[in-house]
Amino acid sequence: MDLLHSWGVNLAVHLQTEYLDYENLFQWVSSVADLHTTFFVFFPIWFHLRRDIGVKLIWVAVVGDWLNLVLKWVLFGERPYWWVHETRFYGPIKRPELQQFSITCETGPGSPSGHAMGSAGVGYVMVTAVLSIVAERKPPPLQYRFLQLMLWMLLGLVELLVCMSRVYLAAHFPHQVISGVISGIIVAEIFSRVQWIYSASLKKYISVTVCLLFFAVGFYLLLKAVGVDLLWTLAKAQKWCINPDWVLFDSTPFASLLRNMGTLFGLGLGLHLSGYNETAGRKHSSVSIRTGCIGVSLVLLQLLDKMTFSASNKLLFYLLSFCKSAVALVLPTALIPGVICWISSKSKHEKDM
């Protein structure tokens, strides 16, 4: 693996040297590729355009990120920014100099890349959704094939930029981002064949959330009992990150786990509160209401996103992260549509009088 890692470091150095002027672009791409964008931007848009697509987005993102966490615990992947300092591969030879950035110092294991896996899975869902919507209108075959080609090429370009950005930032090795893309597409393809998620009850959502949480925690405790420290990467991040402020507690595996569980629970609760079914979907189908729901959701979610919590009390931090993620899904699925529909109905009633 050292040889493979050394090739990855050489590529990172090459990118940092040859594409120095693209630093801001790579940092922006890496930030947008985070699942945070899916939860706070893509989901509220898709949910009010095509609710089934919005639901699938969350399931693919949450289950994919949960699987990513488990794989990271199993594969023990290194990250370039600390590996280059600790490896004996270079011996007396001068070690390559890797730059670090404000989003380099993630604290979890590196393989597979969560950014690559999440963006690939979510991107796959959105591309197939657009193609499905267009296919329903029965376009000319040649135009449809051209659209297919353009969308898949666009997704490929996006994933290339995501992979380059993660290597450029010294957060991942090339093989980690490639495995992430493949894993993300596999998860998305599996969920394209799963139908029960669209009619799942609140009880089912709670059951799945609890099962995923208990499995991850149980797996962690089991490995810890046999002497495996799954938080070994946190010490490495704290040791080798050039700026201690860049080592963020919300990038730890358990912080990610609680956010995802909160998201899945929030989706189930929001759908339950809104009485989600086909009738409800048709009831609020007017363009003006959907547009209003999207606009208000995006604004309120950005305000919610500004809420941050101190990590001094870890248990409280995890609890608040769970609650924040749940609220982020309840807002666009139940609260905002309910309020907007109530205002719309009241205005219509007053006009009729």
Automatic annotation (TrEMBL):
GO terms for cellular component: endoplasmic reticulum membrane. InterPro entries: Glucose-6-phosphatase (IPR016275), PAP2/HPO (IPR000326), PAP2/HPO_sf (IPR036938). It is an enzyme of class 3 (hydrolase). Its EC number is 3.1.3.9. It is a multi-pass membrane protein. Gene3D superfamilies: Phosphatidic acid phosphatase type 2/haloperoxidase (1.20.144.10). Keywords: Endoplasmic reticulum, Gluconeogenesis, Glycoprotein, Hydrolase, Membrane, Transmembrane, Transmembrane helix. GO terms for molecular function: glucose-6-phosphatase activity. The chain crosses the membrane at residues 25-45, 57-76, 116-134, 146-171, 177-198, 205-223, 257-275, 287-304, 316-343. Substrate binds at residues 79, 166. It holds the Pfam family PAP2. Signal peptide: none annotated. The keyword Metal-binding does not apply. Residues 53-192 form the Phosphatidic acid phosphatase type 2/haloperoxidase domain. The active site is at 115 (proton donor), 172 (nucleophile). It is found in: Endoplasmic reticulum membrane. SMART domains: acidPPc. GO terms for biological process: chemical homeostasis; gluconeogenesis; glucose 6-phosphate metabolic process. This is Glucose-6-phosphatase. It comes from Cyprinus carpio carpio.
